[in-house]
Design a protein that fits this description.
By secondary structure, the chain is of the alpha/beta class. It is built from 7 helices and 11 strands. The strands form 3 sheets. The protein has a 7-stranded mixed beta sheet with strand order 5-4-1-6-10-7-11, sandwiched between helices. It has a two-stranded antiparallel sheet with strand order 2-3. It has a two-stranded antiparallel sheet with strand order 8-9. The longest helix has 19 residues. It is globular, with a radius of gyration of 18 Å.
Length: 249
Amino acid sequence: MTATVPEKKRNIAIVLSAGRGNRMHADRPKQYLDLCGRPVIAWSLYAFEGFADVDDVILVTGSDDIDYCRSEIVDRYGLKKVRSIVPGGTERYLSVWEGLKEAKRLLNDQYGQAGEGSYLFIHDGARPLVDDGILERCLADARQYHACVAAMPVKDTIRIADDNAFSLETPARRSVWQIQTPQVFSFPLVYESYRKLIDAGAADVTDDAMVVERESSVRAKLTEGSYRNLKITTPEDLEIAQMWKERAR
C-alpha cells in the first residue's frame, strides 16, 4: 500500500502598491519610479519571485493601475508567482484586508486548503531592497512564534514630543526598534485578526502586527531586517536605493 504524502501548505505574499507617495513630489506614484532600469515595485516582486518558500503573490494596487501593473510589470518582467492583482482600499489596512480576502479565496478555491499551516507575508512594494536573508529569517520566526516583523534597532536618540514639539521624554535607545516589512504571520491568525478589526470598524492602526496584537493574545517577534531595507518615501531614499542596487551588480 502506498503511503499518502501530505500536501504542501502554500505560503502567500501580499505586496502593497496602492499608495500615492506625495512626499516624493514626482509625477507618478513612487512604486512606479525607475530604479536601475526597472520600476521600484518590480524589484519588490522579484524578491518573492526568487524565494522558494513563497508560492503565490497577490499584488494590491489602485483600481486605475490594475491594467498597467498586469501588462507593464507582471507580464513584462515575467513574474509567474503573481496570481492576482486586486484593487486596494482608501487606507493601508483596508488594502491589506482586500489582499487577505483574495489569499483566502486562493487557498480555498484553487488549492482546497483552509490556511492551516500556511504563512502570509505582507510587504510594502516601496521596499525594493528586501532580500532572501530577511525573508528566511522572518519565515523561521513566524513558524516559531506565529507572528513576526522585520525590524532594526534605531541608531539615533529618539525623543517623545508634546503637541507643541517640546520634549517630553527620551526612551532608552536599546528598547526602540524601527519597524520594516515584511511582516509574517500564521495565515489563520492574521486573517481572523483583520476580520475582527474590520467588523469593529477600527482604523487607528499603522502596521499589521498592531492588528494581530490588538485582536489576539499573540505578540510579534522583532526579526532582524536590514538597514538597507529602506522604504522609498522621499527623493533621497531613491538615490540611496540606487546606490545599493548598483553596488550589488
